Fold this protein.
Amino acid sequence: MLRGLVIAGVLVVCLAAAAVRIPTILRHAVDAGTGGRPGTAERELGPADAMDIPNEVIGRAEQVIPPDATYNLVLGPQFELTETQRAGIPVVLRYYLLPRHEVQGTEHADWVIAYGQSSESLGIRYRREVPLAEGVNALELEH
């Protein structure tokens, strides 16, 4: 009988210890499953963030430029861009703005994205100018 009471006492102590540790164990399990991993939105915008493209540029451009339109990207001197950014920004925007197609030269485009370039300095005629972010505008061209 004494042996049964000792075993029961040990079980009670073990169960109490486990009950105290369960919240911590569960918290660690949840943290291990999600901690350090970006969410879906962060993963989707990762390439744009790597090029320091403001997220609103992509969102606003997708809203403003019709899916069947063409666009030309002009990188201007307003921002000090690295060589990596000068090469990467067009590629990243090309990806995010699909099915819109980038074309070379403003004469073949429906829209111009003036990225760090004042619209007045482009010397083109446009119907409207839509701000995408600070220093970045979309211009709907007149044809």
Summary: Confidence is low (pLDDT under 50) at residues 10-18. The first strand starts at residue 70 and ends at 75. The beta strands are 70-75, 101-102, 111-115, 126-133, 136-141. Helices lie at 2-34, 40-44, 46-50, 55-64, 83-96.
